[in-house]
Amino acid sequence: MYLPKPYENFSKNYPQVLKDYQQLGKSCREAGPLDPKCQDLIKLGIAIGANSRGAVMSSVRKALASGSTPEEITHAVFLSLTTTGFPNMIAALGWVNEVLAKYLDKK
Question: Is the pLDDT confidence value at 87 over 90?
């Protein structure tokens, strides 16, 4: 799995903080009834709203791993249009397409 260099550096320098952060994420995922695929699509939407390239790309990889199709992921991006605006949606679509291109090349 791809990990950005800043993440690797952070994990090396602050392993306990990372461990606590990962546990919080696990606890949040387990706190309700949503299945992993739904959770990953929701997290993609949140990442799009935050206009975070890294989070969008990471969310796409996680959504694919949990069973989302490229079409479902693209639909989630389109849903952001009326909430976050056209420029934000277009940026997110570009980031998503970067990940999907690599994913489809591997198939």
Answer: yes
